[in-house]
Design a protein that fits this description.
It is built from 16 helices and eight strands. The chain has 376 residues and is an alpha/beta fold. An eight-stranded mixed β-sheet has the order 3-2-1-4-5-6-7-8.
Length: 376
Amino acid sequence: MNVGIIGAGTMGIGIAQVAATNGCKVWVYDANPKQVETATVGLEKTLTKLVDKQKISAEKMVEILANISIATELKDFKDCGLIIEAIIENKDIKTKVFTELETYVSEDCIISSNTSSISITSLGAELKKPERFIGIHFFNPAPLMPLVEIIPSLLTEKSLAEKMYNLMKEWGKMPVIAKDIPGFIVNRIARPYYGEGLRIVEENIATPVQVDDAMRTLGNFKMGPFELMDLIGVDVNFAVTTTVYKDYFYDPKYKPSLLQQRMSEAKLHGRKTGKGFYNYAQGAENPAAQKDDALYQQIFLRIISMLINEAVEAKRLGVASDEDIELAMQKGVNYPKGLLAWGKEIGYSKISETLQNLYEEYQEERYRQSPLLRKM
């Protein structure tokens, strides 16, 4: 298959690597030609490291690079059977690209978006053939993260989701099929991991390092919410939360954090800017966590209860199958367990009691329970 990638950022070039590794001829386009050059040089360095570590052969590296070509304009995608867009999370910009693209590609070319939170239905609705449009959401870094969310819109041709599901399996990925709701599976269910951590810090209940330490030590998460936000990009995480909040008609459950907004405004974006919730400058010392067993239990139970409640609500609404909900959270954001299984392990009654206590304390809809939770 000939594959076109729009956007040569980290995600775009990562997807290109995946497709090229699996024998596809890939064309990469970016509105900024210098970005494509930078990305391809970076990819060559990445592949060289893989050869040095004996993860791939030198011959395979040559093959991958030979499979990738630079497109100088969207017209260069005329022979592609699949296009994957991976540009800025802005609906108007994406839609403009798609409508122009449709004038160049064949009638049966599949057009897709790697958006993490924008409605697939709204993105495809402006196309002349919206039935050929679908969401294919990879996770960063695309070559390493196994999960891919496949999101058909209300207008997508019925068999296309299964076709893309099978293609992702051929590419060595673990695909799941999700409804076209804000945040899909992972970015919807994961919101409390960041949001509740931020709320705890905003209320001076604990410090970011204490929240992170609690979730690592008690929950066995690989990274706490503040470490993870710094890795993802505080600004990117804030943008996704804001999109989900707006798209759910300002549901208080997804209300963004003022602290996170201020961090974004100050360009304290995390690792990519050298400073976020932690300082990444060479030789910088970050504060150690002041351990407190009772506080850690409180932090862990509060955040995990919110997460499990979201997973239960996703199950109730049929966002995805139980198996796909569990797989998505473990393979998309490296959760140590599936949240539905975790709820059963802790006890759904304990989760319900925790949320009820939070609701009574704050009198906020943020802490309302899924109607299904009390029945489980």
